[in-house]
Write a structure and sequence with these properties.
Elements lengths: L11 E7 H11 L9 E11 L2 E10 L17 H13 L3 E7 L10 H17 L5 E8 L5 E9 L2 E11 L3 E5 L21 H7 L2 H8 L1 E5 L5 H10 L4 E6 L27 H12 L4 E6 L5 H7 L4 E4 L4 H13 L4 E11 L2 E12 L14 H8 L2 H16 L19 H20 L8 E5 L8 E2 L36 E3 L1
Parallel strand pairs: 1-3, 1-7, 4-5, 9-10, 9-12, 10-11, 12-13
Antiparallel strand pairs: 2-3, 2-4, 5-6, 6-7, 7-8, 11-17, 13-14, 14-15, 15-16
The protein binds zinc ion (2 copies).
Amino acid sequence: MKALRLIQDGREALWRITEADREKLFRLLFHRYPDSEWGTFFRFGYRHTCWGILVTSVDALKPEAGDLDRKSPLVEFRPGYIRRALAALESDELGVGLIHSHPQDCVPLPSRSDNDMDSYFSEEFERFGNGRPYVSLIVSRNARRELSFSGRVFDRGAWLPVNDCMVVGEQLHREHCRQTPDRLAPDSEPAANETTQERLGQLLGTDAPRRLRRAVVGVVGCSGTGSPAIHLLARAEVGELVMVDPGPFKLSNHQRNHASRHADLSVRPAPAKVALASRLVREISPATKVTSFVGDLLDEPVLDELLRCDLILGCTDSNYARAALGDIAVHYLVPVLDLAVQMRAENGILREQIGEIARYAPGLPCPWCRGRVSVEGIRYETASEAERQFRAEAAEEAELRGVDGAQYWGGAPPPEFTVGFLTTTVGAMGAGYAQNLLLGSGKLPHNRFQFDLGLSSLGVVTDERLPRECCSCRKTKGRSDQACADRSVSRPSHWPKATRII
Ligand SMILES: [Zn+2]
Ligand SMILES: [Zn+2]
């Protein structure tokens, strides 16, 4: 047998699973506890990224009677079960992997027979799956019901370590793998600043600042709602922020952008909004790692980095970005908190000052199900100037002929007039809910709600509808890149490529 050596070039695998699926899986894997093991094949989606590989659990191919040897305390796969797992590779594009338990209080590290099994399965599964990766995971629990796991992914000839598992549910957990019998964390724990985070520690426990130091939060859109959220997450000394915005800073942004200074108003060419946000984070919290892009979430390198995040804040007001965030939440199991604002006035009197917060996650309705995005809107936002011109002319001609021109042209969206107090309120709420989900210190009151600052009892309206029966979000949970065909929007070729800010 070949020795299974994990690569040491910095590449790694990240495993994502929903809380509900993990619950079901563990019930199966620990049902012969405390003394005996159990195991199952499972299907997963995957994506090769610049940092390694993402693996997203889809479902278990549960063992049926006779698939595993019940008489053995160890997990032993019978040929019929292996054939069924290999057949699953032929019927779908998903990968197939293996997860098994070790007995209670035993470390979840591969034994010699686990190495033999993985060496055999990795070759067979790679061959039957035409080069698809193979995943092997081991879990165990101690008498206090504390879990630990280890894992590795065989991909194109190399074994990558599974360092982290992200569990996505009402709360979010990032769990580190077990590396050696006595060491739990794969890397040195980042130390939190005890003096600046003293109040947070007193409020939510001394562990809270340290947990935030481990968290990675994505922020898509770095202006009205994004910049106050970034500001507060930096003050909470979150471990890493992945920030994305394609646009330059405009003078009219200064009124609500928390990152701009007066001196920025005269800089030519105008600085990128994401560059200002990066400067803000560096000045407030040098310990926070910043990964930022002048670019768009439809750019593949940007998506790679967003998929490492514990959670993403959606701080844009475009249809295409909202639709793409909905896809990311379902396909890649990365939860999203989507923030929006709307203001309207008549003759100097405010009629609407609405804030909205919505959660996108597997199992919840996507932006399409909730009627939050439109095909016309996406078409307008992703069109080139020439296409917009062409469609406007076609619509005009149609109107002249007495035909409804809307099929050619829904018209330009109306301008949004929002001001800093409302964008800051909603951005701050988004940062607060993000923090609570990361710490397990609070839940979202509703999966989607709106309020109006000018109405009695703040005019709260909630939306707890279920996903639509026919929507693709019901069938694409965790399918990662294998759900590419079901993406709502693809990157227009005329858009400039993303650039990473160093
Ligand atoms: Zn084992
Ligand atoms: Zn849907």
